[in-house]
Description:
methyltransferase, SAM-dependent_MTases_sf, zinc, globular, 3-stranded antiparallel beta sheet, 11 helices, 8-stranded mixed beta sheet, about 30% helix
Amino acid sequence: xxxxxxxxxxxxxxxxxxxxxxxxxxxxxxxxxxxxxxxxxxxxxxxxxxxxxxxxxxxxxxxxxxxxxxxxxxxxxxxxxxxxxxxxxxxxxxxxxxxxxxxxxxxxxxxxxxxxxxxxxxxxxxxxxxxxxxxxxxxxxxxxxxxxxxxxxxxxxxxxxxxxxxxxxxxxxxxxxxxxxxxxxxxxxxxxxxxxxxxxxxxxxxxxxxxxxxxxxxxxxxxxxxxxxxxxxxxxxxxxxxxxxxxxxxxxxxxxxxxxxxxxxxxxxxxx
Length: 272
Ligand SMILES: C[S@@+](CC[C@H](N)C(=O)[O-])C[C@H]1O[C@@H](n2cnc3c(N)ncnc32)[C@H](O)[C@@H]1O
């Protein structure tokens, strides 16, 4: 997948060609690879004006929690979809610490996989997994790849920019977006709020987009018991953490088990 210069939008080439230590465009904008193997394509002025993404504590807690396999049934469904749509190149939008990329590569070692996230801490963790062919620090609102270079884009609980996604997908490209179904983590939310508000459809932007047509909607759900430190890791990886008072956080830390629905909505779109 050809990466794009964030300064002038031209294609970035490996430099030197054989043992690249940087990427460079024809206008001589140059971006060095970090020692971990990722490249930072977020321009300084954009970094200041946009959110920094999830912080390191959230990323680490998400990694600890996801590595325990609680979301394996979601992974299995996504792998089936990836196989069904037989993609050439897959882009993991807002890949975070790389759990899904790692899980996909275990079941599909030949997958050509690139990922990016606005949070450098997440990209550093993802790089350690050594499964992405390309990794960049970049924004979902300025996707760091050239137009028509992605066969399948995946956005799992990550920000969506319909125009940008349509730009990078090939004409036959597919977008898979994953978000919470209405009752996702209901009992965790009830630990924080007096009344649970069911999640609303998070895909209105795509459903009403002139760039995409919806082709399939799936819902996968399991009631799961989460135990011990995994409960607090789960809290910390979600926005509920910011709403939980110190007292509620301490109460959640003391829980030995929490049974909650894990419920995901998966939507597939093609280019309009
Ligand atoms: C809920 S996490 C999901 C991470 C990963 N997809 C997963 O499911 O484990 C949302 C991710 O989006 C990233 N993010 C937030 N704003 C972003 C933006 N403007 N561009 C790219 N990534 C962004 C966060 O840093 C975070 O890693």
